[in-house]
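ingest -> validate -> predict -> emit
validate: passed (alphabet ok, no gaps, 219 aa)
predict: started
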Amino acid sequence: MSSFTVHSIPGSPFGRAVLATLMEKSAAFRFVAVPPRAIKSEPHLSIHPFGRVPVLEHDGFRLYETQAILRYLDRVLPAPALTPADPKAAARMDQVLAIADWYLHQGVNSIIGFQRIVRPRILGLPGDEAAIAEAVPRAHVVFAELSRLLGGNDYFAGSQLSLADIIVASQMDFLAQTPEWAPLTAERGNLAPWLARVSARKSFEATTWERVAEMGKAA
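emit:
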């Protein structure tokens, strides 16, 4: 019988993307909570040499890097498919996945989300307002392009949920909890309804920071 284990920090958008994908596939899994201060030391470094999360284990096979994990899950758990069959729609999904990693996370959520949410909630420290202000112009560029790519579609690759929606929504849910969210979405009227649409899915309702923290306690 297939057995999936996910190692991640409760609240991690990347870990949430993996958990939500497993839930979209109705797959059973075990969640192992990794304390934030433990990711740069053993035993976690033995399963992720770069000291990050998440890590997936499946029947003796270990994998890290979120996109690799999501694509793997979509191959070994083919129903429902989260990669479009149409080549153009699949290419759009791939494009949005790259935007999520290189532009939405790097330099935007890694700063605004970290300074507004992770720093006070995990570290007990105030956010760096100068760092946030410096990141906001980049955020506007990213949000404008994601809004353009979404257009009038329900999801980024068309009418059906794809891996792109899962990974972007996991990132944007963080930003939706910050004061920057309203001005970022004010003139991009399709992004907030899109996030609400994805967030209403059972896979996202079950993988909020609080619920994943409970998973870790129950494991």
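The domain at 87-201 is CATH 1.20.1050.10 (Glutathione S-transferase Yfyf (Class Pi); Chain A, domain 2).
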